[in-house]
Design goal:
By secondary structure, the chain is α/β, with parallel strands linked by helices. The chain has 14 helices and 13 strands. Strand 9 (301-302) and strand 10 form a beta hairpin.
């Protein structure tokens, strides 16, 4: 009997496969197609010739833990103990799964804000918990009245994704205040803050759970080197949490993967000493603005993109089809792959909205826009 009877192939894999079959431009799955920094490649080549091929300590390469602590201090003015409060993971998804396994008991409830990234609910179910899906407002902002009504003594976690995938929205100061009030009123509640796009924000500066002294004591913050440095295939991320929370997370981690790729960790430890993550926002804002300019005269309605490398659009001026049918038509007829937003809702709610990834080179974006503007 299946533990996940309603889970099949993800929409990301489905659309990428469909794009390959039809030789379509793939703006569906969220991975960049431009080169990785040549300095990072040089360091990788250098590291492969060193003694970096055996297990690292379970929590992470000591040098990388130190650099993550420095980065957190620089970016968020938060001191983190590298020996007790950081865990390097095999990608952010593994970090999220591990945190949920550590902190969700049989019968616990976990609040998930829809539309939501698809790895949250399955991890909760496998831990014996119950996902409680709360729809966001039409502008993809949290509905705090409904969220507060859903939290109770059985709620173990609330999961937020900031910047948000798929919408590209970011939480504002008022949202962080609402989270603080929730944690004060429900002493058992823990915040799982998925911040993998933390360095990719535009007009509004990213407000992290790290930035609140109250939240940081009750939060597990998820980060991703794959997203930050365009190396999604390396599958390296990390968690930061207070020692009392991290202790339980590490217990699960040691029996799940034990330790993460040693060469990748050693390389990243060097690279963090040389790179400036502060330049990332301007780079991706250029990509966003270029793509928006290219398709602004199309029949698609552009929605705000405040962070991440995603642009959502409505297609109601083009078709009345379901979004799942529309994206297949888009691939087959016009050679561009996108993701339907209904895939991010538990009830497959359809708002005739789809998501494009603009983390592509300019030529790819230009060719895609030409096709989209012909519709």
């Amino acid at each position: 009997m299946s533990k996940l009877p309603h889970v099949g192939t993800t929409i990301f894999s489905t659309m990428s496969q469909l794009a390959a079959e039809h030789q379509a431009i793939n703006l569906s799955q969220g991975f960049p197609n431009f080169p990785v920094d040549s300095e990072l490649i040089r360091l990788l080549q250098e590291t492969t010739l060193e003694n970096a091929h055996q297990y690292t300590p379970m929590a992470g390469h000591p040098g990388l833990l130190q650099e993550i602590a420095k980065l957190t201090q620089t970016q968020y003015k938060r001191f983190v103990d590298p020996a007790k409060e950081i865990l390097v993971t095999a990608g952010a998804t593994q970090g999220i799964f591990t945190a949920i396994q550590a902190w969700v008991q049989n019968g616990d409830e976990v609040v998930i804000l829809d539309p939501a990234y698809d790895c949250y609910a399955p991890a909760v179910l496998l831990a014996g918990g119950q996902p409680v899906h709360i729809p966001m407002l039409p502008d993809f902002t949290p509905d705090w009245q409904r969220i507060r009504a859903a939290v109770n003594s059985k709620t173990a976690l609330i999961i937020v994704n900031n910047p948000h995938n798929p919408s590209g929205k970011t939480l504002q100061a008022e949202d962080m205040q609402q989270l603080e009030k929730l944690l004060v009123d429900f002493p058992r509640l823990i915040l799982l803050s998925d911040e993998v796009y933390e360095y990719i924000t535009f007009e509004h500066k990213h407000i992290s759970a790290h930035s609140s002294s109250l939240l940081r004591e009750r939060s597990i913050v998820v980060s991703s080197f794959g997203k930050t440095f365009h190396i999604t295939g390396w599958k390296v991320g990390y968690l930061i949490a207070p020692e009392n929370l991290m202790l339980e997370i590490r217990k699960v981690h040691q029996f799940l993967v034990f330790s993460v790729n040693s060469i990748a960790q050693a390389t990243l430890a060097k690279y963090l000493q040389l790179t400036d993550v502060g330049q990332l926002a301007a780079f991706y804002q250029g990509k966003r603005d270029y793509f928006r300019t290219l398709i602004r005269d199309s029949r698609f309605t552009l929605l705000p993109s405040e962070g991440s490398y995603f642009q959502t659009v409505r297609y109601d001026r083009i078709s009345n089809e379901k979004d799942t049918d529309f994206v297949q038509w888009l691939v087959r007829k016009h050679g561009v792959a996108a993701i339907p937003l209904s895939a991010f809702y538990e009830n497959r709610q359809d708002h005739q909205t789809i998501r494009f990834c603009f983390a592509k080179d300019d030529l790819t974006l230009q060719k895609a826009a030409e096709q989209l503007c012909r519709i």
